[in-house]
Design a protein that fits this description.
Layout (H helix, E strand, L loop, with lengths): L1 H6 L13 H11 L2 H4 L3 E6 L4 E8 L9 E4 L2 H13 L7 E6 L6 H9 L3 E5 L1 H8 L9 H14 L10 H34 L13 H9 L3 H6 L2 H11 L6 H12 L8 H33 L16
Parallel strand pairs: 1-4, 4-5
Antiparallel strand pairs: 1-2, 2-3
Length: 317
Amino acid sequence: MRSITNELDVGQLTGTSQVSRGCALKLLEDICPEKEVAFMIIVCIDIAKRSHEACLMNGSGNLMGRPFPFPNSHAGVELLLKQIRKHNPELLPVVFGMEATDHYWLPLYSRLIQDGYVVHVINPIQSDSLRNLYIRQTKTDAVDSFLIAEVIRFGRFTQTSLAEPDLIALRQLCRYRFLLVDNISDLKRKAIVLLDQVFPEYESLFSDLFGASSRQMLAEVSTPEEFLAVDTDKLAGLLERTSRGRFGLNQAQRIQDAARQSFGVKLGIDALSFQLHQLVAQVSFLEEQLTELGNQISAYYDRFPARCIRYPVSAKS
C-alpha cells in the first residue's frame, strides 16, 4: 500500500514536469475542495470487462485498506458494498467514481444509481492528465483506481452524463438501423457480382434489380437456363402480379430473349445460382426487419414532446 502512495507522492515531482514541490502543493491546495470532501468516502473503480479494481479513499486523500478486485456481477457488487460497510462504521456519505471505459461501466453504474448512490463518471483523459504529473507514470489497476479517486477528490473534472432512457433506446435503435442498411447494401453488391457472372444481360431488363418484380423473379429463377425452363405465360403472370400490372407478356418475352443470347459463366453455375438465391432471400428478410425497426423508432420518437416536423415543399417554393 505504501508503495502506491509513495509512487504517487507529490514530492516526487521533478524538473521533467517543470513544477517544484512547493508549486505542486500550492496547485493541489487551490484545486482541492477539502471542505466538501473531508467527511465522505470516495470509492473509485478501474473498469474492466470481467473484473474491476476498487480503491477506497477518505476525504483527506488517505487510502482505506488495499485496492481489491471484484467481478462484474451482482455478487461482485455485493462484495464491493460489503467492503465499503467494513471501512465506514461512521456511515459517512459514499461517492463513487469511475472512468467511461467503452460500455463496460454501464452495468455497474446502473446498479449503483438504482441503489441510490452518487456516481461520477469521468473521461479517461482527465485521469491520464493527473498521471502525467508524476515521475513514475505507472499504469496498473491499483494505480488507476487511485488516480480516479484523486480526480474526484480534487473536484475538477467534467462528468460524463447519460441521456434519458428513451433517448438512449432511440440512439441504440438508430445505430442498429445504420448497421442493417450497411448489411443490406453489402448483400446487394454481392448479389450483383454473382448476377453479372450467371446472367450479365439481366441488369438491362429492370431499372431496379431489387424492386418487387425483379426480386421475386430472382428468388425463384436466376440463370438463363432456369428462365427458359419457365413457361412464358407463367412468367408473364408472375411479372404482372408483382408489378401490379406494369409488366406482363412483353417483359417476359424480353427476359427469355435475353436468356437465349446470354453470354455468362457456365462453370459451377449451380453453386453460383444457389448463392444468388440465398443472398436475395437475405436482402428480403433484412428489409422486412428494417420496416419493423422503423416502426419501433417512430414509437420512441413520438414520446418526445419537441420533435422536428417535416412539411411538404411545393415545386414552386
